[in-house]
Fold this sequence. Notes:
Distance between the termini: 24 Å
Structural class: alpha/beta
Largest sheet: 5 strands, parallel
Strand order of the largest sheet: 6-3-2-1-7
Radius of gyration: 14 Å
CATH superfamily: DsrEFH-like
Number of helices: 3
CATH class: Alpha Beta
Order of helices and strands: EHEEHEEEHE
Helix content: 10-25%
CATH architecture: 3-Layer(aba) Sandwich
Number of domains: 1
Amino acid sequence: MATKKFMFVNRKAPYGTSYALESLEVVLISAAFDQDVSLAFLDDGVYQITKGQDTTGIAQKNFSKAYKALGDYDINKLYVEEESLSERGLTQDDLMDLVWEDEDDDWAEKPSIIMVNREQLSDVMAEQEVTLSF
């Protein structure tokens, strides 16, 4: 199978629907098939990668720690729309520290989160061969 550029667009809050968890599962499956996978977080989707998620009050399993494993699957392009963060009173400091190890740079840890504005995100999306929205 030829490698394709897949982008998964995450627009929904992490809990209350199954969209975020289903997206994460499909992302990991796609990476297992050696696809070029990237994610975009916009609208309420930015909440999926915020620090300190606590689901005890809503009786749902907290799957946020699974995002820390993305780098192990060579998923290292997580685009976060700056305007979506700002509109929700959040900054990059509110997001989890998600990293990947660069084998070409003596396994140095590098950030996976790429901050972009709406125009830049639109350009990145236009470069994808497959875009799936959750």
